[in-house]
Structure formats: C-alpha cells, structure tokens
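Appendix B. Worked example

We walk through a single record from start to finish. Start with the input: the chain for Histidine phosphatase family protein, Pseudoflavonifractor intestinihominis, length 193.
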Amino acid sequence: MRIILARHGETGWNAVGRVQGASDTELNEKGRSQAEELGRRLAESGEKIDICYASPKRRAFETAEIVCRHLGLTPIPVDDLREVSFGEWEGYTWPEIEEKWPEEYEAYQEDRMKVAPPGGESLGDALRRILPVLDAIAAGPGETALAVCHSAVIRAVLGWRAGVPFDNKALYRFNVPNAQWVAVDWDRTAQNR
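Next comes the structure step. The output line below is what the pipeline stores for this chain.
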C-alpha cells in the first residue's frame, strides 16, 4: 500500500509558532487556501488515491474535507492519527517552553522517543498508537491511501522508518510544511517493531 501522509493547512497558532498538539485549533484563511492547493496538486499528480483518512482534529479534518472535494472522496476520521500531545507546553512557542521548562525541554530535545513534555506523550507513546493504524490502512482497500494528519506524527513515522535517533537534530530532517505531503510504501508484514 502506498500511503500519502499529508500535513494540515496553516492555523493561527502555526502562523505565530505556537505548539498545538492535542489542542483543537482550526485552519486560518491561508490554511484553507493551502488545502485547496493541496487538493488540486494531488488531483493533478497522477496518484490514484482510493481512500482518505484524517485526524479528527479540526485543522486536519477540514483540510481533508477540502482536499477530498478535488479527489471525489469523503474523509474517514481516525482518532489515532491525531497530533502528539504536548501537554502543558501547548499554546506556548518553543522559546517560551525552553525558558519556562529548561530541564524538561533539554531532556525532550535529546530523546523525544522516551521523554514526554509534562502531561504529554513521547514520540514512542505516539508511535505505539500510530503504527498499528498505518498497518490497518495498509491492509485496507485500494492501492493508495491519503492520511491527513500532523507534523509530529509525520516526523515520528519518517524518523522511525529511517532508524534515526529521536533527537531534535535528526527529526528536523523530516520537516513537512503545512499542506505538503510525503508518500511512503507501507508493507505491514515487513515492519519490525
């Protein structure tokens, strides 16, 4: 199964650099325009997308609805595609987090796989819910699926597949801007956990 992981369009919090995580923010006007463009690009890409899944967070699900109008599909909400929870850090910018929680921030930057923000989840926690969902998508109908989700979800999956250390430097290699996508070939029987 080919799975296209697409990030939602811009929100007001994205525009000012605030961490969103489990917070249910909505698209801004730029984000809606980005979603329209994403839908057009996917429709013109030559990819025959058979089915669309989306995080139920408003920013992702609205992006999926806009994109799916271009693809003739209806998005299916999947709770475990939701963004990684950043707990107490949500609503703050990264510089504010570093200033307010210096020790926790440093530990998180060194090992995001094992270290969670206060009241949040580590990327290891998130992957334990995300990878089985991608396995289920890969076992589902069609040959190509679209999954509209979030930045940390996509980074975690790409980092895990590449086998990189889950620190700040390695994961930023996998930056996916708003309303952009990356396609992965997913064979659930070949995944090693």
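Two observations about the output. The longest helix spans residues 123-139. The chain has one domain: 2-188.
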